[in-house]
Structure formats: structure tokens, C-alpha cells
Amino acid sequence: MRYYHGEAGLSAYLSKFPEARRFRMPPARWEYPYQNKPKGYDETIIGFVDQWFLSDTYINESNRAWVERLNIAMAPRVFNPDNHFSKPLSAGRLQKIAEIFAKHGARLDTSKRMSMSQVREAVKAAKASSNPEAQPLGRVGMITRNSLIIGPKGYGP
Fold first, then answer.
1. In whole angstroms, what is the distance from residue 149 CA to residue 73 CA?
2. 30 touches 9 (CB < 8 A)
3. What angle, 0 to 180 degrees and rounded to 10, lies between the N-to-C axes of helices 63-73 and 116-128?
4. pTM for the whole thing?
5. CA distance 53 to 39
6. CA within 13 Å, CB half, 143
7. 136: which strand partners?
């Protein structure tokens, strides 16, 4: 609305349809409107990352299972269990998650956008490598002088 009618047009629209205030429209016309995340969303997903570091059982559960936990925590808001963890995280959320990595003695590359699914794979890689010489290999594994670690599996001598 703002794109075509300016601030005055947007204000007129919002006064006529106040329920539209809870939606945000990105500046690019080809993107879709979205709802803000509910209160407590960041804390919940950050808690998930912390749990993944602490438990081998939790880290191996499916994305669907984790989104269902998220839906319970964020009720009545519901996220799609089939694809929610495949959507990119905001830079702010990713930075908060990187702090959890640091708390557990690992490093998360925040230079590129990541999804929660990719974060979970990065946790697996960090847990698989207890070697202080290990460096991240993209967002999928760790590499040392003699081996490659992807997820829970190691390759090399």
C-alpha cells in the first residue's frame, strides 16, 4: 500500500482495516507479507539450540518434532511442521544463536543466512568435533588437519 499510495494511503488503509497492523510488508514487491513472531519465540528456539548441545537424543530428533514443540510453546500460533525449520533466520536471531554456540565452546558462522535445520546440522558438527584445532567447513561440518567431520560421522585417519 505504501509503495503505491505513500504514508497517507497506508494510514488511511490501516484506519479502515486495523487488523492489518499485525502484518508486515517487506519493501520488495515480490516478497510476501508476514506476521511478526509471537512473544517468546526467540527464547524458545534459542532454548532448542541449547538442548541440542546438551543431549544426543534431542539433536537426532526430526525437524517436524521440534516444530511441534514450538507450536505447543507458541499456542495459539501454529507454524508449518513441514517447512518452518527450512526458512532463513533473521540476522538478530542468528546472532543470539551464535552466542549459545560460544557458550558451548563452538563457533557459528553468521556471515550467511541459515535456517534452524542448518543450525541443527552445525550443532551436530560442533559436537562431533571435540578437537580444538577443528575449523568449520561451510555450514555442514568441521575439518582438521587429517579428517573431515560431517554431522555425527568422521572421515579420515
1. 33
2. no
3. 120
4. 0.64
5. 24
6. 6
7. 142
pLDDT given for residue 59 in this prediction: 84
Name the DSSP class of 115: B
Query: What's the residue count for the chain?
Result: 157
Phi, psi of 150 (to 5 degrees): -120, 120
Residues 6+ apart with CB under 8 A from 115: 85, 86, 87, 88, 89
pLDDT one-digit tens code per residue, 83-113: 999 999 999 999 999 999 999 888 888 888 8
Backbone phi and psi for residue 154, each to the nearest 5 degrees, phi listed first:
-110, 145
Query: CB-based burial of residue 4 (10 Å sphere; 0-12 exposed, 13-18 middle, 19+ buried)?
Result: exposed
